[in-house]
Write a structure and sequence with these properties.
Elements: E1 10-16, H1 23-31, E2 39-45, H2 52-62, E3 67-70, H3 78-86, E4 93-96, E5 102-103, H4 108-118, E6 122-132, E7 138-139, E8 149-150, H5 152-155, E9 167-169, H6 188-196, E10 201-213, H7 226-242, H8 250-270, H9 274-287, H10 291-301
Parallel strand pairs: 1-2, 1-4, 2-3, 6-10
Antiparallel strand pairs: 4-9, 5-10, 6-7, 6-9, 8-10
Helix pairs in contact: 7-8, 8-9, 8-10, 9-10
Length: 308
């Protein structure tokens, strides 16, 4: 069977919204991929008010067998766009590229999918990226501290995977999306954890394959107070703990949740929110009485405020 007649092996999962000046570069970088198999682009537009959707439609007309458009008559927000677009990804593998990012290595998909095809005990592979700042400068951090092989137990501590570099097995295909996902500000980290819940490993390829635009992406608004970030993480972990899909990882999730709640105690105290800081202290102390925890709490409680 010719490649053009094969079902798509990879679904490239793309979310766009009001990115008319960037979306063509993103699409072109994906279409430039050199693979031995067919891949599709599944583009979710969340009712853009500029020319983004028109540009995507133009590409779909040129590549009708390769590009699927998922649209909405009204703007529903990032996570709803995430969910409905994910549900249209039919490939055995999913790759991610947001509308304001782009791939720089034309062999990105070929390398990553070939690795997963040859290593069935691995469920996800990611790589390095370069950061493109609004002033045009490019920054590259090799992140050598990340091991070449990691697991669910590592990723549950926090997301170190740049979504624009990720390719993973489409294990959520055929399953209902958990209802609690609809209340999240982002979906990539929970989706990775879902994929890895039955024990698969993560491969880190130490080579840059993509460009990530800094301070432009839709999720950048989340990076506010540290306590805000931890509250979202706590919400995710609390729901993972209740989700039957993660029953075999309950102990690991519980440990991660404990660490996040201790982090919330410290963050609220640094922010001088003593009510919430005290709440999380008692929540942690009641579960696991600890002199170390008490010392940390009292030390922060009586720490002098910096002078204005």
């Amino acid at each position: 069977m010719e490649v053009s007649q094969q079902p798509a092996l990879v679904s490239v999962f793309i979310l766009v919204y009001n990115q008319e000046g960037l979306v063509a570069q993103m699409i072109e970088s994906i279409l430039a991929q050199q693979t031995q198999y067919r891949f599709e682009l599944v583009i979710g537009d969340d009712a853009s008010t500029d020319a983004t959707l028109a540009i995507c439609k133009e590409y779909q007309q040129r590549f009708p067998d390769q590009i699927t458009l998922v649209t909405s008559p009204i703007n529903t927000g990032l996570i709803q766009n995430f969910i409905r677009t994910l549900q249209q990804c039919a490939g055995n593998y999913i790759a991610i590229c947001d509308g304001d990012d782009y791939w720089t290595d034309p062999l990105k998909l070929e390398k990553q999918v070939s690795f997963l095809e040859a290593h069935p005990t691995y469920d996800l592979v990611f790589a390095q990226k370069k950061d493109l700042w609004p002033d045009g400068s490019v920054q590259f951090q090799e992140r050598e501290e990340i091991p070449e092989t990691t697991s669910f137990e590592d990723l549950i501590q926090g997301n170190y995977i740049a979504s624009v570099t990720a390719v993973f097995r489409n294990k959520i295909r055929g399953h209902s999306i958990p209802s609690w996902w609809a209340r999240l500000p982002y979906g990539d980290w929970p989706l990775y954890l879902w994929t890895l819940a039955d024990g698969g490993s993560i491969k880190y390829l130490k080579e840059p394959v993509a460009m990530y635009r800094m301070a432009i992406g839709q999720s950048a608004q989340l990076r506010k107070k540290h306590s805000d970030v931890l509250l979202v993480k706590r919400f995710i972990l609390s729901n993972l703990q209740k989700d039957p899909h993660f029953v075999s990882k309950n102990e690991v999730i519980q440990r991660a949740l404990k660490q996040v709640e201790e982090g919330l105690m410290r963050s609220f105290q640094r922010e001088r929110n003593l009510v919430k800081g005290t709440y999380y202290f008692w929540k942690c102390f009641w579960r696991t009485p600890s002199f170390r925890l008490l010392k940390t709490y009292l030390g922060a409680l009586f720490k002098k405020r910096p002078k204005a």
